[in-house]
# Entry
Amino acid sequence: MGDLLKGISNFRGAVFPNYQALYQKLAQEGQQPHALMISCADSRVLPETITQSGPGELFVCRNAGNIVPPFSTANGGVSSAIEYAVVALAVRDIIVCGHSDCGAMKGLCRPDLLKSMPNVAAWLKHGYAAHSIVCQAYPADLPERQKIRAIAMENVIVQLDHLRTHPSVAAKLATNDVTLHGWFFDIETGEVEVYDGSAARFTKIREDGPLPAAVTGRNRPQVAAAIAAE
# Structure
């Protein structure tokens, strides 16, 4: 806790003064973020740092496994954040960002790890499809590290599918007022791979290349082959 308090002191004394005018503007005029980013709560994954976003630029929703529960009548924090971002803030882009070495994906592979965490186990049911896809469509002898990576990538696509079930998102998709994006962050290398809807695979971002196509379809064999080839 002492380090956190020191951090607050440093923010107030050395960082905030440089952004004071911006914070005052945001306080008076409200926020207008460009995008909603749904990412994992993993402490190694920092959306604002990865995207180099400043105050007011990115609306972030974090949870274990970057999960998007399918829409239901039951109220939930993730569903509420999505609805608020789309309806109240009118974000134009929604990003689901998975990452390497994800503990939630390890839990999907080894349910025994979750025996003492019933709430986590119940939450990860929203990622079962990703685990099932990898078990059925990927090579059976895939090493564990690659298997977890594959599940994390497939989980991004599964959660994008879940996003489409939310009425606020579905309506904006129908009028082309929102675009869905799937990202995968490699903690060790700092690389961010983006899901290309036309090629149905994750591809590394190239500064001098075209942006990957927006998410449209799914082609399991191509995705599986890309993972297996690594």
User: Anything to note?
Assistant: The longest strand covers residues 93-99. Residues 31-228 form a domain with the Beta-carbonic Anhydrase; Chain A fold (CATH 3.40.1050.10). The beta strands are 35-40, 58-63, 93-99, 179-185, 192-196, 201-204.
